[in-house]
């Protein structure tokens, strides 16, 4: 910095000595007046100098942190481990309780067992006496010494068979783990059986006795398979993974199918929806289900309310007409909902007939919501006497006149009236109207027929009358008239 | 090892262990892990050894001097200083102590000089390889009680320590050390003898291979200690003049080799690399196929100033760990098995039911496993060998943990409350003698 300054001076041609180095400005001395005793600092600040209160910073190190209470002393203490057989004394550091005298400590130490001694756990391995060995445990392959050695190892390694087989070395004998296990379990079984005959064993003993059964061949075979499994070739592993993926896919789609089926059954059979669907998975089950629904419908009919059939047509109509494409679904949903309604209805009725004989039933009744007519219309509910199973077109079920003459002539009349012959929206209400229309058309046809007949007769009578007056002159015209009138129905035919 | 404490439940690292669950109880024990390259020593309960002393020692043969026929030089400073007539030797062979007098001195040096502790005040835990014969174990016991006069002592297999250090009660421990590579299955803290394998493929093997490789190339192997001034050059046919220090005597050949090992070690750390794929390393490096995807070069400067770029040839020595037949220096005896082959052998020797468990718990430790991409290669070898079961390698990420795993495991054991019932006390030794080790620590 000073170098830079002298450079600038050189450039400007100023002699360095000509300028006195600037004195650093003296630090302003701040005089702190001593505040008289008895006046608080805040009050004092309002009076006098009006200098803001300044925190006095002392230049010294931070205070030592103040700990609560005294620091506990730690003491190196010797301890004995009861898990040891000798009396080795090791020492560890323990926290001293302040205010505890040395004698108390000593006492406490005596009472407290070494806390880790409880991890010294030994398993109970069966022991056999000489007599027992001689009685049931003799084996051509296994000497007494070897059996003893095996049991020692088992005790030592806590039945860890892998380790036991690893460490087993007896007179150069080559024993596999299966050999060792077979021997151990047979010894255990024999001794147990000898001490308490199987029939006298308690359930626990019997369970243990049965669990001790060891099938050596099976075990050897299993190990062989495990070994094979370890050394699969990459191709085999890939194939296996492929198969597993396939299996999972099948399983997934199967459960999806089941789910869908269950959902369908839930809709079909409201009261039984909580039950298992297993019964309905076969075609036979499905048939039973259909039969059940049919029966309940029949029951309902027997007790039916008089109003039911008439209402049905009206109620369903109140819903605004859905677009044409959606109409089949709408109608199907309606018909699916209907049995449920029928069930509910039936239940209400039966409870009504039993009229409060049991409080429980009463309660049931109140649970079922009674819908007003407007609400029923809103929810598009309808009541039916009987539903045919299966899917059908509503138009097929329409009650139209069957007469041939009607079938032949109605299209012409419909055309005349400017009504399309096929219902574009066969909701139950339009169907009902259509039925009405058809009936009226039939009536119209009848009336027209009658009219024609009457007209014909009057014409004949008139003609006869005229003939009486002017027989020769007019006969031709009457005939032509008659032929004309008789021609009309012919044309219609 | 009969009732080694059960440690089968491993706590997640985020939860604080309960007082008893943590199970620690410090009794200020010492842990000593004698390796071929270095001897590690420190206090139980700490996470790294306090001191790490070279196991190599210097000796000035002198029949007059009574102590082991010469004057001993122990410790880093002593063995790396140039002393007339000093030979460098190693008291261990194949991971097993051969020269007890020197080993005792080294241990004493570790504890009394480096740790400034008094041997007779602390229980002592020593690690040993699984193939340590009974005689040596008895000898260790004798020295520890007679010479050191320790209050309590125990011998643990280093493989067990290594699996504990990686918080696994059961694991297949692969220790790639200096003198050997060993594979040991450990089940619930008990090593399985029948499944354990070892080969001389380790750090020392790599040193020899590299020394051979460099000599073949015509590189002057003068170590740092011998160089007075260096001038760099890149042309081997026209080398810069070698200006060596004049000590007034010729250092012993073994000393030179130890010094060479120092820069070879550096080379291993920064230049050597394991070829990551099994079986694809080109057999002939002078004749690499056209389309072979190689490696970027890395440059290294030897102590005498020679600078060289190494390409694929820096994979050659590490490759010989997996595929010993490519070793630059021909094998004198039988060609040993590669490391992956050895693991397969070990797996074949253990019970079929625990094989899958072992394969999914492979613990890889030891200094040489720090070779770049070593674990990647091992993983590829093993997955190719066992396509079916899950193969999972656990290897500490920290360099210190990798090198000192055995010590760390010993430190955990010796500070564990439930372990204190296992110590062999002086009293027991006095009653039964050195054979107590066979009864108590199997
Ligand atoms: N980063 C590294 N890269 C390659 N080799 C290493 C590395 N660090 C250490 N080594 C080698 O590891 C060996 C020491 O391993 P270590 O496990 O300590 O052996 P031991 O237990 O037998 O003494 C030495 O040969 C050393 O050169």
From TrEMBL, chain A:
Annotated keywords: Chromatin regulator, Nucleus, Transcription, Transcription regulation
Sequence ranges assigned to domain Myb-like in this UniProt record: 134-188
Cellular component terms per the entry's GO annotation: NuA4 histone acetyltransferase complex; Swr1 complex
InterPro entries, per the entry: DAMP1_SANT-like, Homeodomain-like_sf, SANT/Myb, Swc4/Dmap1
Biased composition (Polar residues): 349-358
Cell compartments where the protein resides: Nucleus
Compositional bias per record (Basic and acidic residues), positions renumbered to this chain: 463-472
GO biological process, one term: DNA repair
Domain of life where this protein originates: Eukaryota
A GO term, aspect molecular function: transcription corepressor activity
The keyword DNA-binding belongs to this UniProt entry's keyword annotation: no
Principal location: nucleus
Ranges of compositional bias, category Low complexity: 320-329
UniProt cross-references to SUPFAM superfamilies, sorted A to Z: Homeodomain-like (SSF46689)
Protein name as catalogued: SWR1-complex protein 4
Species of provenance: Dactylellina haptotyla (strain CBS 200.50) (Nematode-trapping fungus)
TrEMBL record, chain B:
Domain of life: Eukaryota
Pfam families reported for this sequence: Actin
PROSITE patterns in UniProt: ACTINS_2
SMART domains per the UniProt record, alphabetical: ACTIN (SM00268)
Family, similarity comment: Belongs to the actin family.
Protein known as: Actin
